[in-house]
Amino acid sequence: MIFTIEIDIEIFKIMLIELNEDTLANLVAENNKVVVQFSASWCGNCRIMKPKFKKLATENENITFALVDAENSPESRKLANVSNLPTFATFVNGKLVNETQTNKQEVLIELVNEIA
């Protein structure tokens, strides 16, 4: 008896980096397109948006996604003029393109689509 099994496998390249050091400037310089979520452990809206941000990372393999702890990364915060959380910022070729503070998935999707 011979069995034939066909398997379709999709491989996703997920570019999601959690920065533990204040090194966002290096990441932005080394990657063409970067989307960043600035957050803090005490921020409820940040926790709500994090899974949505991670999902977008799986859907956009040509973009690097980074999570930055805004409290521990003062130099990184300056790159996107972070004044409220969560802040999302996009960078292309090392330059800030856009930033917004939001807890709405639709706004985040529009931000990502601007550089996709």
Question: How does this model look, in words?
Answer:
The chain is of the alpha/beta class and 116 residues long. Helices cover 33% and strands 26% of the residues. It has four helices and five strands. A five-stranded mixed beta sheet has the order 1-3-2-4-5, sandwiched between helices. Strand 4 and strand 5 form a beta hairpin. Helix 2 packs across helix 4. The longest helix is centred in the middle third of the chain and has 16 residues. The N and C termini lie far apart (49 Å).
Task: Kindly list the characteristics that best describe this protein.
116 residues, 4 helices, 33% helix, 26% strand
In short:
The chain is of the alpha/beta class. The protein is built from four helices and five strands. Helices cover 33% and strands 26% of the residues.
Write the layout of secondary structure elements.
Layout: E1 16-19, H1 24-30, E2 33-39, H2 44-59, E3 64-69, H3 74-79, E4 87-92, E5 95-101, H4 105-113
Helix pairs in contact: 2-4
Uncertain runs are none
Radius of gyration (CA) equals 16 Å
Number of helices: 4
**Residues in β-strands, percent:** 25-35%
- The average pLDDT value, as a whole number, equals 90
**Measured distance between first and last alpha carbons:** 49 Å
H/E element sequence: EHEHEHEEH
List the strand order in the largest sheet. Answer: 1-3-2-4-5
Label the structural class: alpha/beta
User: What's the overall geometry?
Assistant: globular
Give the % helix: 25-40%
Biggest sheet record: 5 strands, mixed
The strand count comes to: 5
